[in-house]
Design a protein that fits this description.
about 100 residues; alpha+beta; 3-stranded antiparallel β-sheet; two-stranded antiparallel sheet; 3 helices
Length: about 100
């Protein structure tokens, strides 16, 4: 799966840990109309934290590298996971 999209996390979201789960909640004026609570697994939460800290737009290849640095996963699986994450975030409206 190829994905040349560059994304940036939308402002106004806070990632919080509740037990073993990670919850992304829209807070602040930027997300006044966002009435969802997004549950993320540990890997998605890891990528969100890294992408939110990153000052530039993020590519699938950058996410792939973060996954390879953090987890024991093949380059192909890391890229597939990065592409799926980007597509999911765009679809639910937490990245642009």
């Amino acid at each position: 799966m190829e994905n040349d999209k560059m994304i940036k996390c939308k402002k106004g979201f806070k990632l919080r840990q509740l037990g073993d789960e990670w919850i992304l909640i829209g807070e602040g004026i930027e997300q006044i109309n966002f009435n969802k609570m997004i549950t993320m697994n540990e890997t998605a939460a890891f990528l969100w934290k890294k992408a939110a800290e990153f000052k530039e737009e993020v590519s699938a290849e950058k996410m792939q590298q973060w996954l390879l640095d953090e987890y024991e996963v093949s380059p192909e699986q890391a890229l597939e996971d990065a592409n799926l994450t980007i597509a999911n975030w765009l679809e639910i409206g937490i990245a642009e």
